[in-house]
Design a protein that fits this description.
This protein has one domain: 60s Ribosomal Protein L30, Chain: A (2-Layer Sandwich), CATH 3.30.1330.40. A hairpin with a 4-residue loop joins strand 1 and strand 2. The chain has a six-stranded mixed beta sheet with strand order 1-2-3-6-4-5, covered by helices on one side. Helix 1 runs parallel beside helix 2. By secondary structure, it is α+β, with helices and mostly antiparallel strands.
Protein backbone atom coordinates (compact mmCIF):
# COMPACT_ATOMS: atom_id res chain seq x y z
CA UNK A 1 0.00 0.00 0.00
CA UNK A 2 1.19 3.50 -0.83
CA UNK A 3 0.34 6.23 1.65
CA UNK A 4 0.46 9.79 0.23
CA UNK A 5 0.58 13.04 2.20
CA UNK A 6 -0.59 16.50 1.12
CA UNK A 7 -1.74 15.31 -2.28
CA UNK A 8 -2.23 18.04 -4.86
CA UNK A 9 -3.08 18.04 -8.54
CA UNK A 10 0.61 17.89 -9.53
CA UNK A 11 2.43 16.16 -6.68
CA UNK A 12 2.34 14.82 -3.14
CA UNK A 13 4.68 16.23 -0.52
CA UNK A 14 5.51 12.72 0.65
CA UNK A 15 4.79 9.07 -0.07
CA UNK A 16 5.46 6.05 2.12
CA UNK A 17 5.78 2.52 0.74
CA UNK A 18 7.39 -0.68 2.03
CA UNK A 19 9.09 1.01 4.96
CA UNK A 20 10.55 3.84 2.90
CA UNK A 21 9.57 7.52 2.97
CA UNK A 22 10.00 9.61 -0.19
CA UNK A 23 9.81 13.40 0.02
CA UNK A 24 9.14 15.80 -2.83
CA UNK A 25 11.70 18.52 -3.34
CA UNK A 26 11.62 20.88 -0.36
CA UNK A 27 12.26 24.60 -0.79
CA UNK A 28 12.21 27.63 1.50
CA UNK A 29 8.88 29.30 2.27
CA UNK A 30 10.68 32.65 2.54
CA UNK A 31 12.66 33.11 -0.65
CA UNK A 32 14.11 36.41 0.56
CA UNK A 33 16.40 34.62 3.05
CA UNK A 34 20.07 34.02 2.28
CA UNK A 35 21.39 30.51 1.61
CA UNK A 36 21.82 29.76 5.33
CA UNK A 37 18.27 30.86 6.12
CA UNK A 38 16.80 28.98 3.18
CA UNK A 39 18.74 25.84 4.09
CA UNK A 40 17.43 26.06 7.67
CA UNK A 41 13.86 26.40 6.36
CA UNK A 42 14.28 23.42 4.05
CA UNK A 43 15.72 21.24 6.81
CA UNK A 44 12.89 22.25 9.17
CA UNK A 45 10.35 21.25 6.49
CA UNK A 46 12.15 17.91 6.08
CA UNK A 47 12.09 17.35 9.86
CA UNK A 48 8.34 18.05 9.96
CA UNK A 49 7.50 15.73 7.07
CA UNK A 50 9.67 12.91 8.41
CA UNK A 51 8.01 13.25 11.83
CA UNK A 52 4.57 12.93 10.21
CA UNK A 53 5.71 9.66 8.64
CA UNK A 54 7.08 8.41 11.97
CA UNK A 55 10.77 8.71 11.17
CA UNK A 56 13.57 11.26 11.48
CA UNK A 57 16.83 12.54 9.99
CA UNK A 58 18.87 9.75 11.61
CA UNK A 59 17.28 7.37 9.08
CA UNK A 60 18.11 9.22 5.86
CA UNK A 61 18.87 6.84 3.01
CA UNK A 62 19.70 9.36 0.28
CA UNK A 63 19.61 13.12 -0.27
CA UNK A 64 19.79 15.08 -3.50
CA UNK A 65 20.57 18.78 -3.17
CA UNK A 66 20.07 21.34 -5.91
CA UNK A 67 21.80 24.68 -5.37
CA UNK A 68 21.65 27.68 -7.67
CA UNK A 69 25.09 29.11 -6.92
CA UNK A 70 28.08 26.94 -6.04
CA UNK A 71 29.56 29.91 -4.17
CA UNK A 72 26.85 29.17 -1.57
CA UNK A 73 28.03 25.56 -1.16
CA UNK A 74 30.16 26.15 1.99
CA UNK A 75 27.40 28.10 3.79
CA UNK A 76 24.79 25.48 2.88
CA UNK A 77 27.10 22.71 4.08
CA UNK A 78 27.68 24.49 7.41
CA UNK A 79 23.94 24.49 8.13
CA UNK A 80 23.60 20.91 6.87
CA UNK A 81 26.45 19.63 9.06
CA UNK A 82 25.05 21.36 12.16
CA UNK A 83 21.64 19.75 11.51
CA UNK A 84 22.80 16.21 10.74
CA UNK A 85 23.27 13.82 13.68
CA UNK A 86 26.83 12.52 14.09
CA UNK A 87 27.41 9.25 12.30
CA UNK A 88 24.23 9.56 10.20
CA UNK A 89 25.51 11.20 7.01
CA UNK A 90 23.57 9.67 4.10
CA UNK A 91 24.74 9.17 0.54
CA UNK A 92 24.29 12.61 -1.01
CA UNK A 93 24.62 14.42 -4.31
CA UNK A 94 24.77 18.18 -4.74
CA UNK A 95 24.40 19.78 -8.15
CA UNK A 96 24.12 23.31 -9.45
CA UNK A 97 20.73 23.93 -11.05
CA UNK A 98 18.23 26.61 -11.95
CA UNK A 99 15.22 26.12 -9.73
CA UNK A 100 11.56 26.70 -10.61
CA UNK A 101 11.48 30.12 -8.91
CA UNK A 102 14.35 32.61 -9.11
CA UNK A 103 14.20 33.43 -5.39
CA UNK A 104 14.89 29.82 -4.37
CA UNK A 105 18.54 29.10 -3.64
CA UNK A 106 18.34 25.45 -2.57
CA UNK A 107 16.04 22.46 -2.97
CA UNK A 108 16.42 19.06 -1.31
CA UNK A 109 14.92 15.68 -2.17
CA UNK A 110 15.04 13.13 0.65
CA UNK A 111 14.51 9.40 0.96
CA UNK A 112 14.41 7.90 4.47
CA UNK A 113 13.72 4.59 6.16
CA UNK A 114 10.80 4.34 8.58
Amino acid sequence: MVQRFDVGPRLSEMAVHNGVCYLAGQVAADGSADISGQTQQVLAAIDALLARAGTDKSKLLRVEIFITDLADFPAMNAVWEAWLPAGCAPPRATVQARLARPEWKVEMVVTAAL
